[in-house]
Design a protein that fits this description.
Largest sheet: 8 strands, parallel, barrel
Number of helices: 11
Number of strands: 15
Distance between the termini: 48 Å
CATH superfamily of the largest domain: Glycosidases
CATH architecture of the largest domain: Alpha-Beta Barrel
CATH class of the largest domain: Alpha Beta
Radius of gyration: 24 Å
Structural class: alpha/beta
Strand content: 15-25%
Shape: globular
């Protein structure tokens, strides 16, 4: 067996086998290779001479990778929720776009409150990237709360319902065209009946030749409303091998062959067993290969959680015993390391912030009912803000240059010399040159480029 990396020693007592270690080591190499880039910062005096010798402090201020969690309308004014969210995440999954929740009264979509939240608190706190969940979902006509599809829709004849759906998709995507929004256009298409098949059970394996045009049409409507919007389909129970993974892969390939404007693959990572199934490293990596590498599309893990409930047994072949807050932390850290280490993954959305306000399933969140951190919260904080964050202090060389390898994202550089200081900002982006030139003019000046 290969020598374990330092972070692996902390979890090696769980009895992970050689194959799992191999995946974890591959992910660790992937983090170094794909999540970091070479940066070269050049500093010069106003007369063009290299600024040799000044002290430079480089600090990463934001990640390019999308570490997300959820916001519902009731959270917009929850000060504690908002403050906790800011401590860990940089990507907002904006929930309750379900048609029944978004437009419970015909002609009165809940646009104003969301735009106030986006243009207010979100922008003021640097949250400019969002995920819209969801535009189309058809497991039921309506549930008791009317949250899935609005009751008023069924006052119309079937053909007009379809026309209303088309207008609904176009309106929402158009209304948010100034927002950097990734849209979940069709949710759970491989599990639910196609639109309009109301005589069928809500959860049914529809023939894919019927599913493809239904999803393709929805994607095309969204794309026409905003050609710059990023669109995905989203589904669950597709990480382990089996029937649903095969169906989802087949759907994506058929959509690609049909030329559908599909820009990413959404994967819900809480099934089987509502967060009690501990995915093995091999299952996670293989799913990333199948849905990412082989399709050429980026992956968004859109709904991920593990339970912390000691009363629930671990399921799946990978681990045995019962869950606990500590085991939840171990499983979450393992998942994030593997997903972050695979180059196809662009986002992980943990689906639940605090057990005071869970996403329908108890004990799956990262904070307890008093908003206090569980062990999983501390693990993620160390990963995102310490291990996967770049900071350094160094002096410029004789050519006025600082070189380093850092995680992709946004940075601040502070230069100090003889009681003076300058502040610059720059980006280190995946696939883009990492060289930046700065002139040390007036203190606290802006970058040349």
């Amino acid at each position: 067996m290969k020598k374990l990396l330092p972070w692996m020693l902390a979890i090696s007592g769980l009895g992970m086998d050689a194959a799992s270690n191999s995946v974890l080591e591959r992910a660790a190499r992937g983090i170094e290779q794909h999540r970091k880039g070479e940066a070269v910062l050049g500093f010069r005096w106003p007369d063009g001479r290299p600024a040799a010798g000044p002290a430079v402090e480089v600090r990463q201020t934001a990640h390019e990778f999308r570490f997300g969690n959820v916001f519902r309308p009731r959270h917009y004014t929850n000060a504690l929720y908002r403050e906790r969210f800011k401590e860990l995440f940089n990507f907002i999954s904006l929930l309750e776009f379900n048609w029944g929740q978004y437009e419970p009264e015909e002609g009165r979509p809940r646009l104003a409150g969301r735009m106030d939240f986006i243009n207010g608190w979100c922008r003021e706190n640097g949250f400019t990237r969002l995920y819209g969940h969801m535009l189309v979902w058809t497991p039921q006509r309506q549930d008791q709360s009317g949250s899935l599809l609005p009751a008023w829709l069924f006052n119309y004849e079937p053909g007009e319902r379809t026309a209303q759906l088309r207008r609904r998709i176009e309106r929402e995507v158009r209304d948010y065209r100034e927002v950097d929004m990734v849209w979940d256009v069709v949710n759970e298409a491989i599990h639910c009946r196609v639109w309009g098949a109301w005589d069928k059970p809500g959860w049914v394996d529809e023939p894919l030749p019927e599913v493809v045009p239904y999803v393709n049409n929805a994607l095309a409507r969204a794309h026409a409303a905003n050609p710059n919007a990023r669109l995905l389909s989203n589904d669950y129970r597709v990480i382990p091998r089996g029937h649903y993974r095969e169906r989802y892969v087949d759907l994506i390939r058929r959509l690609q062959q049909a030329g559908a404007p599909l820009h990413a693959v959404g994967i819900q990572a809480h099934e089987p067993d509502r967060g009690a199934y501990w995915f093995s490293p091999e299952e996670i990596w293989e799913a990333c290969e199948v849905f990412g590498t082989q399709t050429g599309l980026p992956i968004y893990f859109t709904e991920f959680w593990y339970t912390s409930d000691p009363g629930r047994a671990l399921t799946g072949p990978y681990r045995q015993g019962n869950w606990s807050p500590e085991r939840q932390a171990e499983a979450i850290e393992e998942f994030y390391r593997i997903a972050f280490g695979h180059p196809a993954v662009e986002a992980i959305i943990y689906f639940g912030l605090a057990d005071a306000d869970p996403p329908g399933y108890p004990n799956v969140c990262l904070l307890d009912e008093q908003y206090r951190p569980k062990p999983a919260w501390e693990r993620l904080r160390r990963l995102i803000h310490e291990e996967w964050s770049t900071r350094l202090r160094v002096a410029t060389d004789a050519g006025g240059t600082v070189r380093f390898r850092g995680f992709h994202g946004q940075y601040e550089a502070r230069v100090r010399e003889a009681g003076r200081s300058w502040r610059f900002t720059f980006d280190l982006k995946r696939g883009q040159p990492g060289r930046h030139e700065f002139a040390l003019g007036n203190p606290e000046t802006a970058p040349v480029r």
